[in-house]
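Hi V.,

You were right to ask for the full record rather than a summary. Here it is.
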Amino acid sequence: MRSDGENLTGLWFESSRDVSKHSYNFEEKDLPIFDETSRWLDIYFSGKNPDFTPKYKIENLTPFRSQVIDIMNKIPYGKTVTYNDIAKEIAQNRGIEKMSAKLLEALLVGIQYVLLFLVIE
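Predicted structure:
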């Protein structure tokens, strides 16, 4: 996990294939946000719905990514939503006929590891 001291700014698993991208110079600290995030993950992976979301901050957030994340945050616990579903909602919000689900897939694959709880909250 990575934090700015108050917010979660990164989350990945040691065995993930892109873990090498996260080998920054860092200082290990025990922070409340790490405890809260660990508790959230423990609850979620035990098959229960956490009733809270750790504070997080996404750096370099474009308006498009912000729109995608807003949609992802509305996905109810336990519900499956496809890239195509999200693309259709964005197209409708923008007043266009269609949006590429492949474009969304490329975007979401990158951020879903970092902000796992956005997708499954």
